[in-house]
């Protein structure tokens, strides 16, 4: 007899009581499609000689397929990589104040471009421009999708078909294909490189100024540092030179912070206020790097230049939505209270977390991780680690941290790959890093309030390891 005649019908499987909850949660269409896919695969397998699976096995496979399919792709993860502002993991986590503001703006209509005093049409930048001016000392401000967009819009508005003078040592590439020369040419501006990779002097800039010059630009080196025989021109000197020739001086700060992080024990990173005070006419920086807010590109500076930028039709194409503005407003408001900044802005809190605090957490969680890995030929220890800030901020600085080193017993390095895979297969995946022949889990970004959730996630590790073993 043809074994395929024994294959259950779609309807019979759909009525299985084990699938009722899934049908309820995701609807008939999704579960039916998964059943059809499975039956097609089973028919092919049986024709090729495989045994016909029992109904119960088919139902289980449908359940697993639907559950896997319906998981959100944008899954929350535990960032134990040791890189705080991890671009691939979404950079800065938002403070609770910003999350609440974002939810409120998402749920209901809000006065996005509506002037509540006059009842007339408003400008969406008004949500944050006063705060940005207060925090940077600038005259005016505007917001776009990210810092790459801010730089692009600035160049396209002020330097189309004209020349932009930049030091050779600042022609950087940021991960994810942001290259200063490429952005420049796409914006329609002509790059004029001056100086050498390691040394650029004021006279290099002065000699490059022509009637076709549009602006002098400084790009914060972000993700690398040049040491040794180096020279860069001070911002105030560049500003003075530019102004003598009636040219604007602009700075792409990259990370850009609104407060001197040295006050919180971190290395100094140039602030937007310092750039404005040094004479910059426009400054751009990211919302989701050291600032600790949502993805956004912030432009602050001279009123007339910001007005020009806002009139560029591309501003409309690069503008931010209400969710971003809601979150950004809430984060900027936290900067008005520097005393509590390191407690309230999540990214700053993570960056300033004392090593002793992280080490104590590691000691508390060690038995949980050891139990989860008890069946594998590995050792698990609490070790001192070095975290990175990430996103090109303060590239050479490291923050003393603590966490776990999982090392293979003997020379079975493959076991680490397996554990990494198991950790990624958890309902809330755990992302670590491989280094020194060990799998390292840096606990800097694990909040005290997440400890129980993390412990519960680890309890699922043995099952995840079995699932991923095939
Ligand atoms: C990160 C960075 C950018 C890009 O910023 P995004 O917000 O990621 O678009 C541009 N310039 C510099 C100097 C940077 O560090």
Question: What would your notes on this structure say?
Answer:
It is a single chain. The chain is built from 20 helices and 15 strands. Helix 3 crosses helix 4, helix 5 runs antiparallel to helix 14 (322-334) and helix 17 (355-372) packs parallel to helix 19 (451-459). Strand 7 (213-219), helix 10 and strand 8 form a beta-alpha-beta unit. The chain starts with 9 loop residues before the first helix and ends with a helix. The strands form four sheets. Strands 2-10-9-8-7-3-6 form a seven-stranded mixed beta sheet, with helices on both faces. Strands 11-12-15-14 form a four-stranded antiparallel beta sheet. 42% of the residues lie in helices and 16% in strands. By secondary structure, the chain is α/β, with parallel strands linked by helices. The chain binds pyridoxal-5'-phosphate (PLP). The site of pyridoxal-5'-phosphate (PLP) has 16 residues, from helix 7 and strand 8.
Short description:
It contains 20 helices and 15 strands. It is an alpha/beta fold.
Write the layout of secondary structure elements.
Elements: H1 10-14, H2 20-26, H3 28-47, H4 55-70, E1 78-79, H5 96-107, H6 129-136, E2 140-144, H7 147-158, E3 163-167, E4 173-174, E5 178-179, H8 180-186, E6 190-194, H9 202-208, E7 213-219, H10 235-244, E8 249-254, H11 272-277, E9 282-286, E10 297-301, H12 303-311, H13 313-318, H14 322-334, H15 341-344, H16 346-352, H17 355-372, E11 378-387, E12 399-408, H18 414-424, E13 430-431, E14 433-435, E15 438-442, H19 451-459, H20 461-469
Parallel strand pairs: 1-13, 3-6, 3-7, 7-8, 8-9
Antiparallel strand pairs: 2-10, 4-5, 9-10, 11-12, 12-15, 14-15
The chain binds pyridoxal-5'-phosphate (PLP).
């Amino acid at each position: 007899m043809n074994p395929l005649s024994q294959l259950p019908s779609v309807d019979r499987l759909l009525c299985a009581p084990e699938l009722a909850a899934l049908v309820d949660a995701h609807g008939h269409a999704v579960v039916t499609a998964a059943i059809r896919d499975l039956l097609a695969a089973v028919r092919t397998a049986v024709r090729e000689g495989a045994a016909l699976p029992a109904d119960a096995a088919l139902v289980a496979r449908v359940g697993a397929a639907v559950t896997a399919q319906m998981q959100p792709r944008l899954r929350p993860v535990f960032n134990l990589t040791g890189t705080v502002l991890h671009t691939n993991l979404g950079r800065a986590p938002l403070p609770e104040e910003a999350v609440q503001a974002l939810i409120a703006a998402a749920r209901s209509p809000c006065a996005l471009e509506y002037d509540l005093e006059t009842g007339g049409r408003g400008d969406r930048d008004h949500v944050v421009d006063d705060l940005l001016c207060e925090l940077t000392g600038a005259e005016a401000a505007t917001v776009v999708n990210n810092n790459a967009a801010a730089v692009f819009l600035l160049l396209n508005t002020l330097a189309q078909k004209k020349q932009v003078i930049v030091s050779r040592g600042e022609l950087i590439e940021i991960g994810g294909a942001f290259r200063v020369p490429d952005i420049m040419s796409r914006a329609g501006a002509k790059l004029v490189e001056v100086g050498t990779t390691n040394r650029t002097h004021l006279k290099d800039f002065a000699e490059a100024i022509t009637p076709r010059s549009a602006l002098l630009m400084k790009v914060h080196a972000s993700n690398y540092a040049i040491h040794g025989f180096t020279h860069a021109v001070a911002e105030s000197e560049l500003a003075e030179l530019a102004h003598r020739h009636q040219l604007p001086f602009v700075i792409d700060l990259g990370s850009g912070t609104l407060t001197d992080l040295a006050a919180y024990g971190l290395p100094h990173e140039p602030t937007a206020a310092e750039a404005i005070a040094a004479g910059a006419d426009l400054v751009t920086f990211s919302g989701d790097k050291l600032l600790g807010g949502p993805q956004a590109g912030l432009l602050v500076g001279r009123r007339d230049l910001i007005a020009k930028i806002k009139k560029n039709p591309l501003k409309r194409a690069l503008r931010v939505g209400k969710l971003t503005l809601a979150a950004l407003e809430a984060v900027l408001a936290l900067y008005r209270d520097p005393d509590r900044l390191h407690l309230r802005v999540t990214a700053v809190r993570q960056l300033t977390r004392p090593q002793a605090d992280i080490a104590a957490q590691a000691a508390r969680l060690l038995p949980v991780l050891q139990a989860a890995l008890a069946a594998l030929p590995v050792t698990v220890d609490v070790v001192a680690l070095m975290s990175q800030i990430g996103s090109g901020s303060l590239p050479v600085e490291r923050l003393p941290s603590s966490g776990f080193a999982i090392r293979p017993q003997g020379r079975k390095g493959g076991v680490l790959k397996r554990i990494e895979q198991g950790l990624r297969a958890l309902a809330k995946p755990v992302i670590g890093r491989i280094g020194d022949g060990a799998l390292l889990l840096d606990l800097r970004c694990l909040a005290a309030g997440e400890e129980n959730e993390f412990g519960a996630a680890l309890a699922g590790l043995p099952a995840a390891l079995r699932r991923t073993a095939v």
